[in-house]
Description:
This protein is an alpha/beta fold and 376 residues long. Helices cover 47% and strands 9% of the residues. Guanosine-5'-diphosphate binds next to α4.
Amino acid sequence: MSDNEKRPExxxxxxxxxxxxxxxxxxxGGHDGISSYSGSGKAKRKVYRRPQxxxxxxxxxxxxxxxxxxxxxxxxxxxxxxxxxxQAQEVLKKLLPKTGNSIRIGITGVPGVGKSTFIEALGVYLxxxxxxxxxxxxxxxxxxxxxxxxxxxxxxxxxxxxxRCFIRPSPSGGTLGGVARKTRETMMVCEAAGFDVILVxxxxxxxSEITVRSMVDFFLLxxxxxxxxxxxxxxKGIMELADALVxxxxxxxxxxxxxxxxxxxxxxxxYLQPSTEGWISHAYTCSAIENKGIDNIWSVVEKYRRITxxxxxxxxxxxxxxxxxxxxxxxxxxxxxxxxxxxxAKVYGEVEEAVSNGxxxxxxxxxxxxxxxxxx
Length: 376
Ligand SMILES: Nc1nc2c(ncn2[C@@H]2O[C@H](COP(=O)(O)OP(=O)(O)O)[C@@H](O)[C@H]2O)c(=O)[nH]1
Ligand SMILES: [Mg+2]
């Protein structure tokens, strides 16, 4: 398969290999504006190139409700090529005044707990209430197939076809930091396009919860009744991040157990640090598959928004998140300068050996590496 076949059709010849186009697999439903691109790489058809868009074209298209341009803008944001990153920043700068008018909700829980089903139920409910909903995912483990969010296509399909909804799978590959940056910027693009509820699904394993917590206003932890806490991989730390804890699958024979679990968690939560200042997190039950309790959970989110907006916590929280994001990008940038520095590379092996041998203390090792980094 040639590189060309893997590139978006609008990619310029000189664009290099940096295009994040592998994510397009599985989203050929036409809602992302790249409908003609199969992504399988098997087709030998001629690549049709769309005319390039200027930053103004992007900004106008997005705010004007053009879904094809919205999809292309997100592909631009997800690109790793320097030229595209630069244009993406130009577009985001233009969009900035139109961003932020949404409630951002993170949804986590172990695989199988029902995150996608819950998002679909909530998404449909919100659309019926007159909202416009964007569904995004953060899944750094997702590879060429495009991640977990569209794992069950038939279920998400109804939602994905609706004009009032926009679904985007996780940008694939790369570091969690890279995936998070792309998702945050995609969130901004979606807000500028008029989506007022952003739902972000996380895989519920590893560090991704903490990352998603740092980009949303409200964090919801889905759980199951009956499964032990260890089994669910839920640490106290994750419970402390949650603004609501929801026991899903409260249906059929499981209903009573779900209610018992809710009471237990409700008690346990008394001993936890509150996730958000001025808000006490509670436990709830729902059945995503039977659409039960979804409206109640939305009313909790609304109440949260009301209280935190009135107290100023909502805005303060966002500002803090944005500056933390800036700082973490600075950290990443400095780190890559460090690891890419040839003087550091020259001494790194030696230093590593000396540290493992126990002949060089760690602090002295750091000094040596930093000295090498500072050399001109
Ligand atoms: N009984 C029941 N099953 C559910 C419910 N929500 C999800 N499921 C099922 O649980 C499985 C995993 O759901 P999914 O949404 O893919 O979970 P995810 O991995 O957390 O995104 C699927 O077979 C769903 O049909 C629910 O409320 N009740
Ligand atoms: Mg899922």
